[in-house]
Amino acid sequence: MLLGAVVAGPVAAAPPAAAAEGPHGDFTITDPRITESSGLVASRRHPGVYWTHNDSDDGPYVYAVDGQGRTVATVTLRGVKLRDAEAISLGPDGRLYLADIGDNLDGTWPEVWIYRFTEPDELGDRTVDATRFRVRYEDGPRNAEALMVHPVTGRVYIASKHESTGGLYQGPEALSPTGVNTFRRIADVPWVTDGAFSPDGSRLILRGYFWAAMYRWANNEPTRIGPVDLPFQRQGESVTFTADGRSVLYGTEGARSAVKEVRLSGDQLPDDVRPTAAPSSGPATTPGAAAGPGATTDGSGSGGPPSTSVALWIAIAAAGAVFVLRKARRPK
Protein backbone atom coordinates (compact mmCIF):
# COMPACT_ATOMS: atom_id res chain seq x y z
CA MET A 1 0.00 0.00 0.00
CA LEU A 2 1.39 3.39 -0.94
CA LEU A 3 1.79 6.18 1.57
CA GLY A 4 -0.58 8.28 -0.46
CA ALA A 5 -3.34 5.98 0.73
CA VAL A 6 -3.00 7.21 4.31
CA VAL A 7 -6.19 8.74 5.66
CA ALA A 8 -5.55 12.10 7.27
CA GLY A 9 -6.38 12.43 10.93
CA PRO A 10 -6.86 15.40 13.25
CA VAL A 11 -3.85 17.56 14.01
CA ALA A 12 -3.63 19.63 17.16
CA ALA A 13 -2.46 23.23 16.98
CA ALA A 14 0.78 22.60 18.84
CA PRO A 15 2.61 19.74 20.53
CA PRO A 16 2.61 19.49 24.30
CA ALA A 17 5.43 21.26 26.09
CA ALA A 18 8.49 19.03 26.35
CA ALA A 19 9.70 18.09 29.78
CA ALA A 20 13.00 19.49 30.97
CA GLU A 21 15.68 17.05 29.96
CA GLY A 22 17.51 15.14 32.65
CA PRO A 23 20.79 13.28 32.32
CA HIS A 24 20.90 10.64 29.62
CA GLY A 25 23.43 8.44 27.87
CA ASP A 26 24.41 4.79 27.91
CA PHE A 27 23.36 2.80 30.96
CA THR A 28 22.79 -0.80 32.03
CA ILE A 29 19.51 -2.03 33.52
CA THR A 30 20.58 -3.65 36.79
CA ASP A 31 17.28 -4.97 38.17
CA PRO A 32 17.48 -8.81 38.15
CA ARG A 33 13.72 -8.95 37.48
CA ILE A 34 14.15 -7.23 34.12
CA THR A 35 15.56 -9.90 31.83
CA GLU A 36 13.49 -9.37 28.68
CA SER A 37 13.21 -5.59 28.34
CA SER A 38 11.05 -5.24 25.26
CA GLY A 39 9.80 -1.65 25.37
CA LEU A 40 11.27 1.69 26.37
CA VAL A 41 9.85 5.20 26.63
CA ALA A 42 11.13 8.43 28.17
CA SER A 43 9.05 9.79 31.02
CA ARG A 44 7.51 13.22 30.60
CA ARG A 45 6.85 13.83 34.30
CA HIS A 46 10.21 12.56 35.56
CA PRO A 47 13.18 13.83 33.51
CA GLY A 48 15.92 11.26 33.06
CA VAL A 49 13.60 8.33 33.83
CA TYR A 50 12.52 5.62 31.38
CA TRP A 51 9.66 3.12 31.54
CA THR A 52 10.26 -0.49 30.49
CA HIS A 53 8.73 -3.96 30.89
CA ASN A 54 9.48 -7.61 30.25
CA ASP A 55 8.06 -9.21 27.15
CA SER A 56 6.82 -12.47 28.71
CA ASP A 57 7.14 -14.78 31.71
CA ASP A 58 6.47 -11.87 34.06
CA GLY A 59 3.50 -10.40 35.88
CA PRO A 60 1.63 -7.21 34.97
CA TYR A 61 4.58 -4.98 35.87
CA VAL A 62 6.02 -1.81 34.39
CA TYR A 63 9.35 -0.54 35.72
CA ALA A 64 10.81 2.96 35.87
CA VAL A 65 14.60 3.07 35.58
CA ASP A 66 16.88 6.08 35.89
CA GLY A 67 19.95 7.10 33.91
CA GLN A 68 22.12 4.77 35.98
CA GLY A 69 19.87 1.80 35.23
CA ARG A 70 18.43 1.61 38.75
CA THR A 71 14.76 0.78 39.23
CA VAL A 72 13.04 3.72 40.92
CA ALA A 73 9.43 2.51 40.65
CA THR A 74 7.43 -0.61 39.92
CA VAL A 75 3.84 -0.22 38.73
CA THR A 76 1.51 -3.22 38.94
CA LEU A 77 -1.58 -3.28 36.72
CA ARG A 78 -4.45 -4.49 38.89
CA GLY A 79 -6.26 -7.59 37.60
CA VAL A 80 -4.26 -7.78 34.36
CA LYS A 81 -2.79 -11.00 32.98
CA LEU A 82 -0.30 -10.19 30.24
CA ARG A 83 0.23 -12.66 27.41
CA ASP A 84 3.08 -11.13 25.37
CA ALA A 85 3.74 -7.46 26.15
CA GLU A 86 5.99 -6.00 23.46
CA ALA A 87 5.94 -2.20 23.56
CA ILE A 88 5.20 0.86 25.64
CA SER A 89 4.47 4.44 24.62
CA LEU A 90 3.35 7.72 26.18
CA GLY A 91 0.44 9.78 24.93
CA PRO A 92 -0.13 13.56 25.03
CA ASP A 93 -2.64 12.99 27.82
CA GLY A 94 0.14 11.88 30.19
CA ARG A 95 -0.97 8.25 30.07
CA LEU A 96 1.19 5.22 29.33
CA TYR A 97 0.11 2.63 26.77
CA LEU A 98 1.32 -0.94 27.30
CA ALA A 99 0.90 -3.11 24.19
CA ASP A 100 0.12 -6.80 24.71
CA ILE A 101 0.38 -7.41 20.96
CA GLY A 102 2.91 -10.20 20.47
CA ASP A 103 1.89 -13.35 18.59
CA ASN A 104 4.91 -15.51 17.79
CA LEU A 105 2.74 -18.03 15.96
CA ASP A 106 1.60 -15.33 13.48
CA GLY A 107 -2.15 -15.50 13.69
CA THR A 108 -3.01 -17.60 16.72
CA TRP A 109 -4.74 -14.79 18.62
CA PRO A 110 -7.88 -13.31 17.01
CA GLU A 111 -7.40 -10.15 19.04
CA VAL A 112 -4.72 -8.42 21.10
CA TRP A 113 -4.88 -5.75 23.78
CA ILE A 114 -3.56 -2.34 24.77
CA TYR A 115 -3.61 -1.23 28.42
CA ARG A 116 -3.64 2.47 29.30
CA PHE A 117 -2.88 4.00 32.69
CA THR A 118 -1.79 7.40 33.99
CA GLU A 119 1.90 7.99 34.48
CA PRO A 120 2.35 8.42 38.26
CA ASP A 121 3.06 11.91 39.56
CA GLU A 122 5.43 10.45 42.14
CA LEU A 123 7.88 7.60 41.69
CA GLY A 124 7.46 4.57 43.91
CA ASP A 125 5.87 1.15 43.96
CA ARG A 126 2.12 1.19 43.43
CA THR A 127 -0.83 -0.73 41.98
CA VAL A 128 -3.01 1.05 39.44
CA ASP A 129 -6.15 0.44 37.44
CA ALA A 130 -5.71 0.26 33.67
CA THR A 131 -8.19 0.63 30.83
CA ARG A 132 -8.12 -2.29 28.39
CA PHE A 133 -8.66 -1.79 24.66
CA ARG A 134 -9.44 -4.73 22.37
CA VAL A 135 -7.55 -4.61 19.08
CA ARG A 136 -8.00 -6.40 15.76
CA TYR A 137 -6.39 -5.80 12.38
CA GLU A 138 -8.55 -5.26 9.31
CA ASP A 139 -6.61 -7.94 7.39
CA GLY A 140 -6.46 -10.58 10.10
CA PRO A 141 -4.26 -11.54 13.07
CA ARG A 142 -0.51 -10.98 12.98
CA ASN A 143 2.56 -10.71 15.15
CA ALA A 144 3.65 -7.21 16.23
CA GLU A 145 6.21 -5.67 18.56
CA ALA A 146 5.97 -1.93 17.94
CA LEU A 147 3.35 0.51 19.24
CA MET A 148 3.66 4.28 18.83
CA VAL A 149 1.30 6.92 20.24
CA HIS A 150 1.54 10.25 18.43
CA PRO A 151 2.43 12.94 21.00
CA VAL A 152 0.18 15.58 19.40
CA THR A 153 -2.91 13.79 18.06
CA GLY A 154 -2.86 10.87 20.52
CA ARG A 155 -3.53 8.45 17.68
CA VAL A 156 -2.12 4.94 18.14
CA TYR A 157 -0.09 3.08 15.52
CA ILE A 158 1.20 -0.51 15.43
CA ALA A 159 3.93 -1.94 13.20
CA SER A 160 3.60 -5.66 12.55
CA LYS A 161 6.62 -7.95 12.44
CA HIS A 162 7.11 -9.95 9.25
CA GLU A 163 10.07 -10.16 6.89
CA SER A 164 7.98 -9.74 3.74
CA THR A 165 4.47 -8.59 4.62
CA GLY A 166 4.91 -6.28 7.60
CA GLY A 167 2.60 -3.31 7.85
CA LEU A 168 2.13 0.01 9.62
CA TYR A 169 -1.38 0.09 11.10
CA GLN A 170 -3.39 3.10 12.21
CA GLY A 171 -5.90 2.89 15.02
CA PRO A 172 -9.18 4.82 15.16
CA GLU A 173 -9.08 8.52 15.94
CA ALA A 174 -9.71 7.65 19.58
CA LEU A 175 -9.55 4.20 21.14
CA SER A 176 -12.80 2.90 22.58
CA PRO A 177 -12.84 0.85 25.80
CA THR A 178 -16.03 -0.86 24.60
CA GLY A 179 -16.18 -3.01 21.51
CA VAL A 180 -13.27 -3.74 19.19
CA ASN A 181 -10.78 -1.19 17.85
CA THR A 182 -9.92 -2.01 14.23
CA PHE A 183 -6.44 -1.03 13.06
CA ARG A 184 -6.12 -0.37 9.34
CA ARG A 185 -2.98 -0.89 7.26
CA ILE A 186 -1.60 2.39 5.87
CA ALA A 187 1.90 1.41 4.70
CA ASP A 188 4.31 -1.50 4.28
CA VAL A 189 7.22 -1.94 6.68
CA PRO A 190 9.94 -4.58 7.10
CA TRP A 191 10.76 -6.62 10.23
CA VAL A 192 10.12 -3.99 12.94
CA THR A 193 10.86 -4.68 16.60
CA ASP A 194 10.00 -1.19 17.90
CA GLY A 195 9.33 2.39 16.94
CA ALA A 196 8.86 5.82 18.52
CA PHE A 197 7.69 9.33 17.69
CA SER A 198 9.84 12.31 18.58
CA PRO A 199 8.49 14.51 21.41
CA ASP A 200 7.18 17.09 18.92
CA GLY A 201 5.66 14.43 16.65
CA SER A 202 7.64 15.46 13.55
CA ARG A 203 9.83 12.33 13.39
CA LEU A 204 9.21 8.60 13.52
CA ILE A 205 11.99 6.10 14.08
CA LEU A 206 11.57 2.40 13.30
CA ARG A 207 14.09 -0.27 14.19
CA GLY A 208 14.70 -3.96 13.57
CA TYR A 209 17.41 -6.22 14.92
CA PHE A 210 20.01 -4.94 12.45
CA TRP A 211 18.68 -1.66 11.00
CA ALA A 212 17.09 1.63 12.03
CA ALA A 213 15.58 4.40 9.91
CA MET A 214 14.17 7.87 10.49
CA TYR A 215 11.04 9.29 8.84
CA ARG A 216 9.54 12.75 8.71
CA TRP A 217 5.93 12.62 9.96
CA ALA A 218 3.65 15.24 8.42
CA ASN A 219 0.00 15.24 7.35
CA ASN A 220 -0.38 11.87 9.02
CA GLU A 221 2.13 10.06 6.82
CA PRO A 222 5.84 9.16 6.96
CA THR A 223 8.47 10.25 4.44
CA ARG A 224 11.85 8.60 4.47
CA ILE A 225 14.81 10.65 5.69
CA GLY A 226 17.49 7.98 5.95
CA PRO A 227 19.27 5.45 8.14
CA VAL A 228 20.21 6.01 11.77
CA ASP A 229 23.27 4.47 13.37
CA LEU A 230 22.46 1.33 15.33
CA PRO A 231 24.81 -0.22 17.89
CA PHE A 232 25.26 -3.98 17.99
CA GLN A 233 22.83 -5.55 20.47
CA ARG A 234 22.18 -9.20 21.16
CA GLN A 235 18.43 -8.94 20.55
CA GLY A 236 17.53 -5.30 20.00
CA GLU A 237 13.87 -4.85 20.91
CA SER A 238 13.26 -1.23 21.88
CA VAL A 239 13.86 2.39 20.94
CA THR A 240 12.80 5.77 22.32
CA PHE A 241 13.65 9.41 21.83
CA THR A 242 15.15 11.24 24.78
CA ALA A 243 12.85 13.91 26.19
CA ASP A 244 14.81 16.70 24.48
CA GLY A 245 14.48 14.95 21.09
CA ARG A 246 18.19 15.17 20.33
CA SER A 247 19.04 11.49 20.80
CA VAL A 248 17.51 8.06 20.57
CA LEU A 249 18.10 5.25 23.05
CA TYR A 250 18.19 1.62 21.94
CA GLY A 251 17.41 -1.26 24.31
CA THR A 252 17.83 -5.00 24.15
CA GLU A 253 16.64 -8.12 25.92
CA GLY A 254 18.79 -10.04 28.38
CA ALA A 255 19.91 -9.83 31.99
CA ARG A 256 21.81 -6.62 32.74
CA SER A 257 20.89 -5.32 29.31
CA ALA A 258 22.66 -2.24 27.99
CA VAL A 259 20.78 0.82 26.74
CA LYS A 260 22.76 2.73 24.11
CA GLU A 261 22.43 6.38 23.13
CA VAL A 262 22.86 7.64 19.56
CA ARG A 263 22.95 11.38 19.01
CA LEU A 264 20.95 12.71 16.07
CA SER A 265 22.00 15.33 13.56
CA GLY A 266 20.77 17.15 10.47
CA ASP A 267 17.37 16.10 9.17
CA GLN A 268 17.23 13.31 11.75
CA LEU A 269 16.56 15.96 14.41
CA PRO A 270 12.93 16.83 15.17
CA ASP A 271 11.68 20.13 13.78
CA ASP A 272 11.49 21.85 17.17
CA VAL A 273 15.22 21.36 17.90
CA ARG A 274 16.65 21.88 14.42
CA PRO A 275 18.32 25.23 13.55
CA THR A 276 15.93 25.44 10.60
CA ALA A 277 12.73 23.50 10.17
CA ALA A 278 12.54 23.54 6.37
CA PRO A 279 11.26 20.19 5.07
CA SER A 280 13.82 17.99 3.39
CA SER A 281 13.52 17.36 -0.33
CA GLY A 282 13.06 14.04 -2.06
CA PRO A 283 10.13 11.84 -2.95
CA ALA A 284 8.14 10.04 -0.30
CA THR A 285 8.62 6.30 -0.17
CA THR A 286 7.05 3.54 1.84
CA PRO A 287 8.80 2.52 5.05
CA GLY A 288 9.26 -0.95 3.63
CA ALA A 289 11.01 0.30 0.52
CA ALA A 290 13.06 2.73 2.57
CA ALA A 291 14.21 0.45 5.32
CA GLY A 292 13.94 -3.08 4.13
CA PRO A 293 16.68 -5.67 4.17
CA GLY A 294 19.34 -5.00 1.55
CA ALA A 295 18.98 -1.21 1.64
CA THR A 296 22.22 0.65 1.06
CA THR A 297 24.28 1.75 4.03
CA ASP A 298 25.84 4.94 2.66
CA GLY A 299 22.81 7.17 3.19
CA SER A 300 21.34 6.58 -0.26
CA GLY A 301 19.19 3.80 1.14
CA SER A 302 17.13 4.38 4.19
CA GLY A 303 17.11 1.68 6.75
CA GLY A 304 19.78 -0.95 6.42
CA PRO A 305 22.53 -1.36 8.98
CA PRO A 306 24.60 1.75 9.75
CA SER A 307 27.93 2.40 8.04
CA THR A 308 29.53 -0.88 9.06
CA SER A 309 31.30 -3.49 6.98
CA VAL A 310 29.22 -6.21 5.39
CA ALA A 311 31.40 -8.87 6.98
CA LEU A 312 30.75 -7.51 10.47
CA TRP A 313 27.00 -7.46 9.97
CA ILE A 314 27.04 -11.01 8.63
CA ALA A 315 28.78 -12.02 11.84
CA ILE A 316 26.26 -10.07 13.90
CA ALA A 317 23.35 -11.73 12.10
CA ALA A 318 24.82 -15.16 12.73
CA ALA A 319 25.37 -14.39 16.40
CA GLY A 320 21.80 -13.14 16.83
CA ALA A 321 20.08 -15.89 14.84
CA VAL A 322 20.04 -18.33 17.74
CA PHE A 323 18.26 -15.83 20.01
CA VAL A 324 15.73 -14.85 17.35
CA LEU A 325 14.84 -18.45 16.47
CA ARG A 326 14.61 -19.44 20.12
CA LYS A 327 12.15 -16.65 20.81
CA ALA A 328 10.10 -17.30 17.66
CA ARG A 329 9.62 -20.95 18.57
CA ARG A 330 8.81 -20.37 22.24
CA PRO A 331 5.09 -21.02 22.91
CA LYS A 332 3.16 -18.22 24.57
UniProtKB/TrEMBL annotation:
TM ranges: 310-328
Keywords annotated in UniProt: Membrane, Signal, Transmembrane, Transmembrane helix
Record keyword Lipid metabolism present: no
Domain of life from the UniProt record: Bacteria
InterPro entries: WD40/YVTN_repeat-like_dom_sf
Protein name: WD40 repeat domain-containing protein
Region (Disordered): 264-306
Biased amino acid composition, Low complexity: 275-306
Keyword hit for Transmembrane: yes
Signal peptide: 1-19
